[in-house]
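QA checklist item 7 of 12: single-chain prediction sanity check.
[x] sequence parsed
[x] length recorded as 378
[x] structure emitted
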Amino acid sequence: MSSSAVENLRLTRPVVVPISRICWHALDTSDSVFLIQLKIYNKKEQPFFMAYLRWGIIGCGDVAEHKGGPPLYTVHDSELVAVMRRDRRKAEAFAARHGAKWAYADVDALLADDELNAVYIATPPHLHCEQTIRAARAGKHILCEKPMAMNVEECQRMMQACWDAGVTLMIAYYRNFYPNVVKMKALIGQGAIGEVVLARVNCTGFFNPSRHDFANWRVVPAISGGGVLMDIGSHRISLLQYLMGDVVSARGHAEPVYLDVDVDDSAVFTLRFASGAHAVANINWNVGISEDAVEIYGTEGCLRCSPLNSGNLTLEQSGKVFEMQEPPLRYTHTGLVADFVTHLKTGARIRCSGEEGLKTNAVIEQIYAAGPSRRQGL
């Protein structure tokens, strides 16, 4: 999808109501549709007050275990209530480890739980669209793992369902909340490196999956939607848009270079931003040395984060080098969840919205379309 097509999307956005002023009432559960009425109260007449954002998790794999799950109950005004996994015993074990009250083996059963007002969707990408739409129709706010969906068309459907239901959709591009990345954006805004003209991203490592192991769904295109570009490239594209603004064109190559898999293990691409700046990125699953670096160059200096998750930040100006250290987050998704809570309580703009997730998917589609790629099964 071209950038102009993204800009021409016309969807009706609902009015944001602070969560501290709402009360949810279940009206009907016929035909597996959980209908919700929104009623506004003033503080004196409010008959029911939910002090927490109360979460259910759909999909209890490694990402939910180590990254996305803990912030749901460690961030202020956020509580984990229920979890869902198809294997009930594993769901119960996950619930016990993380202090959730309820464990379900069925998505609809979790969505019908009226204790919840939000869900974290931590399943593979091919399930994101369907599960987001079902959650929206159940009146739940949604934090969905990245990439947002298999393609732009699914992203549009997810956004429309959420806007129609009056619920918030956030996409889990958690690196945009790293303290060193936030500091980098602030320094760019303050003019510390002058006018931004170029970014460079290098993300390499070695991933040696088996086609026959479902745990490696990332190499099954009908489940993942693509390879390294969809998996870790999406994070860097989202981060670059956070730092530098909207992408207006993208070109590149994404294909299997070394690994015998049905998706790309190497992606090299360039981006052009609305500001006129450019970015060059190299994303690989097939390099024996691990590196994760982001560099932003301006007319008066340079900013570097390397490794990205370390908290390190370097500013270079006129031959002088300034080293900074921003303490990394204990859990990667902490910033996401805190931003979600703030948005729902105050109406403040959310950083990684569904719209931002769609823009990232649109860039990915441009790169896949621009050069040789292997994106089978779609």
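[x] summary fact logged: Residues 228-244 form the longest helix (17 residues).
[ ] second reviewer sign-off
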